[in-house]
């Protein structure tokens, strides 16, 4: 039985993803970082104002797309369809990094359209590598005291 454990906030998921994207850029590859909720909003607005095709083409051209905060909130039917378009354009052609607080076995139930959700997961997971981060939050709750510089007052 696969145990589903949520990845805690603040452990450095976005930090590691951005570091990997930066490494890709430094070696000459194009990378694009976007939070999944913002991507869903941008695609919805793009559909309304005529930029939808251009947005999809831009995402298809990038060698690495980092989707952060993936399924932080459940995906609507429209968001699932848009995400499938993005993933389909990239599947087996370009790299897509998905950063999520949800464990992979919780992704399918977080998508409003089960059929489209299955298609998304099939394409994303077929040749994937998974990294699970654990540990304390990188965001300190209690700031450390400032060091005494040793000046005479």
Please describe what this structure looks like.
The chain is mainly α. The chain has a domain at 30-125: 3-Layer(aba) Sandwich (Rossmann fold), CATH 3.40.50. Helix content is 42%, strand content 9%. The protein has five helices and three strands. Strands 1-2-3 form a three-stranded parallel sheet. α2 (36-49) packs across α4 (77-90).
Q: What key phrases describe this protein's structure?
A:
globular, mainly alpha, three-stranded parallel beta sheet, disordered N terminus, Rossmann fold, 153 residues
Number of helices: 5
Query: What characterizes the major β-sheet?
Result: 3 strands, parallel
Question: What overall geometry do the principal axes of the alpha carbons give?
Answer: globular
CATH architectural name of the domain at 30-125:
3-Layer(aba) Sandwich
CATH class of the domain at 30-125: Alpha Beta
CATH superfamily of the domain at 30-125: P-loop containing nucleotide triphosphate hydrolases
From the alpha carbons, calculate the radius of gyration and give it in angstroms.
19 Å
Q: What is the count of β-strands?
A: 3
The helix/strand series, from N terminus to C terminus, equals: HEHHEHEH
Query: What name is given to the CATH topology of the domain at 30-125?
Result: Rossmann fold
Which consecutive residue ranges, at least 5 long each, have pLDDT under 50? 1-5
Let me know the average pLDDT.
88
Q: Roughly how much helix do the residues carry, as a percent range?
A: 40-55%
Structural class: mainly alpha
Q: What's the end-to-end separation, in Å? A: 65 Å
Strand content: 5-15%
């Amino acid at each position: 039985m696969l145990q589903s454990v949520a990845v805690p906030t603040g452990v450095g998921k976005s930090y590691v993803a951005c570091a990997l994207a930066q490494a890709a850029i430094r070696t000459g590859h194009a990378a694009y970082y976007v939070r999944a909720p913002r991507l869903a909003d941008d695609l919805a607005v793009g559909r309304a104002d005529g930029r939808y095709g251009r947005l999809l083409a831009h995402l298809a051209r990038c060698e690495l797309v980092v989707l952060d905060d993936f399924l932080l909130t459940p995906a609507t039917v429209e968001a699932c369809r848009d995400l499938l378009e993005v993933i389909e354009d990239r599947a087996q052609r370009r790299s897509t990094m998905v950063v999520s607080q949800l464990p992979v076995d919780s992704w399918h139930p977080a998508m409003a359209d089960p059929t489209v959700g299955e298609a998304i997961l099939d394409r994303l997971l077929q040749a994937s590598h998974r990294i699970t981060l654990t540990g304390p939050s990188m965001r300190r709750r209690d700031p450390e005291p400032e060091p005494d510089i040793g000046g005479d007052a």
